[in-house]
Design a protein that fits this description.
Elements (H helix, E strand, L loop, with lengths): L13 H10 L32 H13 L3 E2 L10 E2 L1 H9 L7
Antiparallel strand pairs: 1-2
Length: 102
């Protein structure tokens, strides 16, 4: 009998989330490019950085981990989020520039 592993935040590649945030354009009228936690017309959604169907609690856990490590900034309480990559996150991306996610 094979046991299927349950998806955990550690299974989501940090670089996928950082690349998504790094590639965003600044929405009209905003000072910084930010992605929201939930979908709204014309506003980037952080869920697009995760595999389709990823449970919200996994998304929040991954974002919390990235925030604690200083790679992104945003609110993980479940409100709008407003996530953005930090300088430390940009440096982390540059350091791993040649790496491609599986």
């Amino acid at each position: 009998m094979s046991m299927q592993k349950r998806l955990q935040a550690k299974h989501i590649d940090d670089l996928d989330v950082l690349r998504f945030l790094d590639s965003m354009e600044t929405p009209l009228g905003w000072v910084f490019p930010q992605a929201m936690l939930y979908r709204r017309d014309g506003v980037p959604c952080i869920l697009d950085a995760f595999p389709s169907g990823t449970p919200e609690k996994i998304v929040i856990a991954k974002l919390s981990s990235l925030c604690r490590r200083g790679l992104i900034d945003g609110c993980t309480c479940g409100c709008k989020g407003a996530f953005e990559i930090t300088r430390k996150g940009e440096e982390h991306l540059r350091m791993h520039a040649g790496m491609v996610s599986a």
